[in-house]
């Protein structure tokens, strides 16, 4: 079973204790993300004059917006991956069929070479017979 980690982080100028099964580095990364969002929102005109409740709501909305955009991007990547997996499957299938056709063509070529060799031998024999008859 995973070990629960506890760490103190600084969010919005306040020390908060976070705990979870993720690494301390991950928890610090989450806190850093929130701090960056707060800093980003603080750049907006009038944000600092809003009530704490409104600031929290705006922060929640921005984080949720990021989440849905990232989720959609992951879905697009997943769809793309599935499409590429199907394309790879189709290409492998086509390659296997082409390989069989190539093997059949090589076998047929070898058979034709053998037949050509035999026919060349027969032609030589017939030419000898003709030359003997003509001499």
Automatic annotation (TrEMBL):
Keyword presence, Signal: no
Annotated protein name in UniProt: Cell division protein ZapA
Tagged with keyword Cell division:
yes
One GO biological process term is:
division septum assembly
Domain of life, per UniProt, equals: Bacteria
Q: How does it assemble?
A: Homodimer. Interacts with FtsZ.
Q: Where in the cell is it found?
A: Cytoplasm
Q: Which InterPro entries match?
A: Bac_CellDiv_Activator, Cell_div_ZapA-like, Cell_div_ZapA-like_sf
What this chain does, per the record? Activator of cell division through the inhibition of FtsZ GTPase activity, therefore promoting FtsZ assembly into bundles of protofilaments necessary for the formation of the division Z ring. It is recruited early at mid-cell but it is not essential for cell division.
Native species: Lactonifactor longoviformis DSM 17459
């Amino acid at each position: 079973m995973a070990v629960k980690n506890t760490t103190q982080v600084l969010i919005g100028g306040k020390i908060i204790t976070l705990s979870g099964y993720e690494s301390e580095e991950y928890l610090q990364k989450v806190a850093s993300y929130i701090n960056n969002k707060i800093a980003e929102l603080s750049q907006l005109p009038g944000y600092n004059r809003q009530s704490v409740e409104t600031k929290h709501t705006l922060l929640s909305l921005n984080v949720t917006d990021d989440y849905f955009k990232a989720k959609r991007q992951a879905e697009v990547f997943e769809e793309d991956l599935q499409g590429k997996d199907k394309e790879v499957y189709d290409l492998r299938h086509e390659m296997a069929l082409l390989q069989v056709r190539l093997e059949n063509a090589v076998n047929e070529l070898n058979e034709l070479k053998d037949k050509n060799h035999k026919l060349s031998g027969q032609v030589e024999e017939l030419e000898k017979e003709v030359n003997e008859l003509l001499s």
